[in-house]
Amino acid sequence: METGLAGKTVIVTGGGSNIGRGIVLAFAEEGSNIVIADKDEAQARRTAAKARELGAQSTLVIGVDVTREGEVEAMVGAVLEKFSKIDVVVNNVGQPSDIPFTEETKETLDKSMDVNLRSTINCAKAILPHMIKQGSGKVVNIGSEAGRKGDPERAVYSACKGAVIALTKAIARDVGSYGVTVNCVCPHRITPQDLEQQTGEGSVFHPEKGQYKMMAPLVGTPELEKMLTEPLSVKRLGRPEDIGYAVVFLASDRAGYITGQTFSVNGGAYM
Predict the structure, then answer these.
(1) SS3 assignment, position 241
(2) What is the pTM of this model?
């Protein structure tokens, strides 16, 4: 299928590890110019090297904290200086929180809202004016099934991802007449296969610092696969590339009549 993404400039936030890495490598196979906007620059550079191996026309790594509006604006300026335009932005940054709602503090609440909602708002706000001016663009936000159904002990995370879904619909209505589409992909039970290559220090699967470090030794084992796939219709765990291919489709010329939609990539866990 011809996607029309060869030579297009694509920004992927949090593109160094896990789902973000899968998205970057999917665009690499299409021959895109890929900007990896990530706090973990070392891991982002490793992913960029792999992307070039797979066919990316060029790569650019920018160290940025997308929860900070000023840093996002500087990142956008650097991308426009190098590539002159931005064709696609994938707002991928996010991190689940397993803190029970009644135990949330102001600090943990603020962090969760910054990472899981404000980061998407900051990037969309900084990039959309340029897409509107050029009369074209694709925005793909990464939500979560938690935002559709609500996850126990993830109340604030679920609320933020629900807000990302609503934000997607509202912005899609605002910018459709300018040739810009906005969609949301909701992953569920996505795990990397190779922790050494696919995760950096900021990853939830990092074996020493990650939120799921206790799970890290089980990644790739039949035991974990069996436990996590029990409620799935497709009897395997999702991989980062599963999200990447869905995002590439929504960013492609073939999806020009699709906007304001929420796509679940969840192995049939919820229908």
Answers:
(1) helix
(2) 0.91
Q: What is the pLDDT of residues 196-212, one digit of tens each?
A: 554 555 655 545 554 55
Structure tokens at 270: 């919820």
How confident is the model at residue 24, as a pLDDT?
98
Please tell me the distance from the alpha carbon of residue 155 to that of residue 225, in angstroms, as a whole number. Answer: 26
CATH tag, 9-198+239-264: 3.40.50.720
- Give the C-alpha distances (Å, rounded to integers) separating 202 from 64, 135, 212: 13, 35, 11
Q: How far apart are CA 64 and CA 119, in angstroms?
A: 11
- Token readout for 116 is 């899981």
Helix (H) or strand (E) holding 265: strand 262-265
Per-residue pLDDT tens for 63-97?
999 999 999 999 999 999 999 999 999 999 999 88
The residues, ordered by sequence, that sit 6+ positions from 182 with a Cβ below 8 Å of its Cβ are 124, 139, 140, 141, 168, 171, 172, 175, 259, 260
Torsion of CA 60, 64, 66, 72, to 10 degrees: -70
What ranges do the domains of the chain cover?
A: 9-198+239-264
Find out whether 122 and 70 touch, Cβ atoms under 8 Å.
no
pLDDT at 211: 52
Structure tokens at 42: 């070392």
Rg (CA), the chain: 17
> Average pLDDT for residues 113-135, to the nearest whole number?
98
- Sequence-ordered list of residues with C-beta below 8 angstroms from that of 63, at least 6 positions apart, any chain: 38, 39, 41, 44
CB 8 within 8 A of CB 79: no
Q: Could you tell me the two tokens for 56? A: 């990316």
Average pLDDT, the chain: 90
Phi, psi of 34 (to 5 degrees): -120, 125
Q: Which residues are catalytic?
A: 157
